[in-house]
Write a structure and sequence with these properties.
single chain; 232 residues; alpha+beta; NADH Oxidase; 2 domains; four-stranded antiparallel beta sheet; 11 helices; 4 strands
């Protein structure tokens, strides 16, 4: 017997949450298309798509689930492989297709930060990261599922301005002083990581954020995220 749409959606969410992809925001397909390069459009990837679900991982659960997966024993890109399998399996529940933040299409990445922002998963910050109201900077945006299902849109966050009246302990903690009111200085950050050993495995600015500190990644997870950043 074919599952009802409600049952399929419940199974979709259950599978993702078991894998630590516990944050989901939904966009109508026209809004998704407006935020991605042409090669990423629904017309190119899944012409029947009506909705796009942005998948993110908040807190420690994603890396914990990955650590006990078969992919954790792979030598090459194990976290991406775990993400790919999990999101693709979940997408099938909704007759959809998963696309990933680590992919290029026609030489272009999609702006997953813009997609997550539009889907209500966070607000901009001095750290150059989206801050989630609960998980703060301890969130990673992993994938988008395009689906023919018509799902309720998740509005962008309103009234959440985490850096507006903050004393910015992130800026004081950063050896590069990269977090700035006018935006995060990526060049200074990358240059400092190249010569400061401590910055290769952790981000003191991120650790200093006052939103969601109890959800800080375990050391192995933070090290993975830091070493996957582009160098100077």
């Amino acid at each position: 017997m074919t599952a009802s749409p409600e049952a399929a959606l419940a199974a979709f969410r259950r599978d993702l949450e078991a894998a630590g992809l516990n944050l989901h925001g939904c966009l109508p397909i026209g809004r998704y298309d407006a935020l991605v390069p042409p090669a990423w459009s629904a017309r190119s990837l899944l012409p029947a798509a009506k909705s796009a679900v942005v998948l993110a991982a908040g807190g420690r659960r994603f890396f914990e689930a990955f650590s006990v997966s078969a992919e954790a024993r792979q030598p090459d890109d194990p976290v991406d492989a775990f993400t790919r399998r999990t999101a693709m399996d979940a997408a099938r529940r909704l007759g959809g297709r998963a696309v990933f933040a680590f992919e290029r299409r026609a030489g272009a990445f999609a702006d997953f930060v813009a997609l997550a922002r539009a889907a209500g998963l966070g607000a901009d910050s001095r750290l150059g990261l989206l801050l989630h109201p609960v998980y703060g900077p301890w969130m990673s945006i992993r994938a988008v599922v395009l689906t023919p299902c018509v799902l309720p849109a998740t509005p962008a966050l309103a009234g959440f301005d985490p850096c507006g009246d903050c004393a910015a302990p992130c800026a004081s903690a950063c050896p590069a002083a990269a977090p700035r009111p006018q935006g995060f200085d990526v060049v200074r950050c990358a240059a400092t990581r190249g010569v400061t050993p401590a910055c290769r495995d952790r981000c003191d600015a991120r650790r200093a954020c006052v939103v969601g500190p109890e959800h800080r990644y375990a050391e192995a997870a933070e090290r993975h995220h830091m070493r996957s950043l582009p160098g100077p």
